Write the structure tokens for this entry.
Amino acid sequence: MIDKLLEGNRKFREGFFRENLEHYRELTKGQNPSVLWIGCSDSRIQSGHITQTMPGTLFIHRNIGNIAPLHDWNFATVLEYAIRHLKVKDIVICGHSDCGAIKALDKETTDVYIPLWLNNAVEAKKRVDARIPPPKTPEERKARSEMIEKENIMLQIEHLKNYPLVKEALLEKKIQVHGLYYNLETGELTKVA
């Protein structure tokens, strides 16, 4: 597989990189992204591809379940750097269909770390399950899953807004926060919040 990655890089350098050489030369001078993109680690989603943005536009933080965890140093560091140093104007939390993290909320597991991490999303499942009857058909299960995926985006926005740094930037109108949802089947990106 590593050989395929290196071959892909060769094709990239000979194609897209060469065609956009001036853009890449500018990027060597520093970064100036306008968006902090908080997305899922899912390998099927490549943020720059689905938004057709050039390198240097998105400052990306990815994790399982597109979570904005409370009291997490790694995440807080990303926020601080993006807001204070890069001066991003927008923060996006992007969830997606067929999310394994959301599915895992319904499963018993012997994993050690994943369930602890997903505690940051379990409230989304509780909220949806309080609003709807238990699903009986595959269609109802799929609809429930989508509802939880979208509710999780809203929950993570709530988490995000608990960071004093984000509260201050929102109050001073330095940033805007957005929730987006990507549908794997259609390729469509829609606004949730």
User: Anything to note?
Assistant: The mean pLDDT is 97. DSSP finds nine helices and five strands in the chain.
